[in-house]
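Late entry, evening session. Most of the bench is empty. Finally got around to the prediction I had been postponing all week. Sequence below, unchanged from the version circulated by S.P.
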Amino acid sequence: MVTVPGLIPGFSDAYVPYPRIFNYAATVTYVISPRTFIEGTYGIIENQLAGGNEGGILTDPSSNRLKSMPDFPELYPNAGVMNSQYYGYQVLQAQSSRAPFFSNGTLNLPPIFGWGSLIGGVCGLPPPACQRYPGWLNINRTQDVAVNLTHIQGRRSLKGGFYFNHSYKAQNTGAGGIPNLSFQGFVDFGNNSNNPLDSGFGYANADLGVFNQYLQASKFIEGDYLYKNVEFYLQDNWKVTNRLTLDYGMRFVHQQPQYDEFDQSSNFFPNQWQASAAQVLYTAGCTNGATVCSGSTRNALNPLTGQVLTVAGGSNLIGTPIPGVGNALDGIIQAGHGIANTNYIWPALVAAPRFGFAYDVTGHSDLVLRGGVGLFYDRPDGNTVFSTPGNPPSATEQNLLMGRWRTWGRD
């Protein structure tokens, strides 16, 4: 375990529970005959990380909002409930005595606060400005097995082999602490001249309960990502003459997509989208009945009813969905619910031919030409899938603009 000093040592310190990387490998070779031998290799590498944001897992009791700010209103009070099968749950359960914000399977961290340009923006200040879940609390484990058989026959080296690769990675979405991806919620008390409730100073806004923006993800999401490669090959290395050598073969590849084992990802299918179920957005309208307007008279217009909203800050709703109209999941299908649990499909088996040569131009090995060509396969980069479990319907977000706690029946 490694302690990471915070901006206020002893108060905002964090720790990394498993600061180790291990890598083990072993190879065994067995000689079947003077011209035939078999070789087997196994290897594993694993790291467990806790970092980003405040540097690890927070240790101060104030990181538990139930103690430090129990009456603070949340858009999703149960957003911090963790799936007991998550890797992060297992880590925090084992480290619960040092993680005061984790109790009864729930992350009770406070919101992330923004204070505006006059104070320091987002996380420009020490806690309580930011007491965030680690940007990444994850595990990365890769295992490899390779078995190769070689037979020497005259000028030829005939080879065949098998390769297996398995990867496991567990990581929370919103890694890096981007406020609008946080289950903790992001509350911006910053000064904003467009906010009719603004006092002009972030601390005063907080005291009055006036927010410029409040958004929160509906739940904590961790993706547990898996993939495996199963491959085998046949190859011939042929010394055609003393000056020409050919190397050719075929590799067969089964390459599984990297996917979340909890089927939390989703995909959009244009052919499943229905115009009749589509959401409708607010457009711009004028409260004074004019065709063109600006300033306080320009507000959100419901194109279905022709009604122009007159609420404070209503212009911010222009371009946003009208509540209760249409289906927010129109065309979206969750992995494993009518589509593959891998969220997209990949060829089950592909052939990858390879060819190479070496030619000794002079016959004295002082000038050798080499060349080769082959077909290779790879899956999409992992960063293209690591955030997809946080998409609807697994999780959603709510974004409130320019309001006050009193709006929710609180002072």
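Two things to note before I forget:
DSSP finds three helices and 22 strands in the chain.
Residues 1-141+173-221+395-411 form one domain.
Will write this up properly tomorrow.
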